[in-house]
Design goal:
Layout (H helix, E strand, L loop, with lengths): L1 E10 L2 E11 L3 E6 L6 H8 L7 E6 L2 E2 L5 H7 E4 L10 H6 L12 H13 L15 H14 L4 E5 L7 H18 L2 E5 L3 H7 L2 E6 L2 E6 L6 H8 L3 E6 L2 E6 L3
Parallel strand pairs: 3-8, 3-9, 6-7, 7-8
Antiparallel strand pairs: 1-2, 1-4, 4-5, 9-10, 11-12
Helix pairs in contact: 4-5
Length: 251
């Protein structure tokens, strides 16, 4: 579905990403992991055409994404940034904006129904008429996710989707994302800081270090040696009821 080949990106002659290659198929969840400053957010911005790579290619179903119009690309790729200032819109209207790539002369009944269903799945329907600048940071984070899900994209790209959420809302939000992946045969690519949360919900992992991919693969690649190499910390990696758990070792 999505193919990234030999992608490089530089900013002011400083190389941020170097030789990034991986693929994303339908019904898959990819977590991009690594410490701050290794290029994770920059990579996501390249994937949704906010940044244009210095070299390499990003193709969607064989088509270069930079050959698509913004409207066409928005029907295929939904992007949720790590932070975005709230506006005076209501929660419902802020999510409804995600239907814009499909609108012709106005809002349709289908647009309203899709938006309502997504808000309900994220536990936001009860605050539909609240202004986004009058809700909490965690609630607004879910509104941004709702907007992207309302787009009904083939690929959902999320930069720290559980940022500002408490543990209960982290799992509620992730379950809603997983349901969308299953219902629409989507591919989801997200950056995560919480390795344990990523391990619980993801099937593919990309570990980045200094602008490069250090390792890519399934749960089998997550080892104490890899964590030490990427994060510089000692951990134990255990299997708890079929889910990997990473526990720091006290010095």
């Amino acid at each position: 579905m999505l193919s990234v080949n030999d992608l490089c990106f530089s900013y002011n002659d400083a190389e941020i990403l170097h030789d990034i290659s991986f693929g994303c198929e339908r019904n898959s969840v990819i977590s991009i992991l690594g410490p701050n400053g290794v290029g994770k957010t920059t990579l996501l911005r390249c994937l949704c055409a906010v940044h244009k790579p210095t070299s390499g290619s990003i193709t969607l179903e064989g088509r270069e994404i930079f050959s698509m119009s913004n409207r066409e690309l928005a029907r295929h790729i939904g992007f949720v940034p790590q932070s975005s200032p709230p506006t005076g819109n209501t929660v419902f209207d802020a999510a409804l904006i995600g239907r814009r790539p499909y609108m012709e002369w106005g809002t349709s009944k289908e647009d309203i129904e899709i938006t309502r269903d997504v808000l309900e799945s994220l536990g936001l329907l009860g605050m539909s008429m609240k202004r986004t600048d009058r809700i909490s940071g965690g609630e607004y984070q879910k509104v941004q996710i709702a907007r992207a899900m309302v787009q009904q994209p083939d690929i959902l790209i999320l930069d720290e989707p559980t940022n500002n959420l408490d543990i209960a809302n982290q799992h509620m939000t992730m379950r809603s994302i997983m349901d969308a992946v299953k219902d629409r045969s989507m591919c989801t690519i997200m950056t995560m800081h919480d390795i344990n949360l990523a391990a619980f919900y993801s099937d593919t992992f990309i570990f980045m270090k200094a602008g490069r991919i250090e390792a890519v693969g399934g749960p089998e690649i997550i080892t104490p040696e890899l964590i030490k190499s990427v994060y510089g910390m000692d951990v134990d990696v255990t299997d708890h009821k079929g889910v990997l758990t990473i526990v720091p070792i006290r010095p």
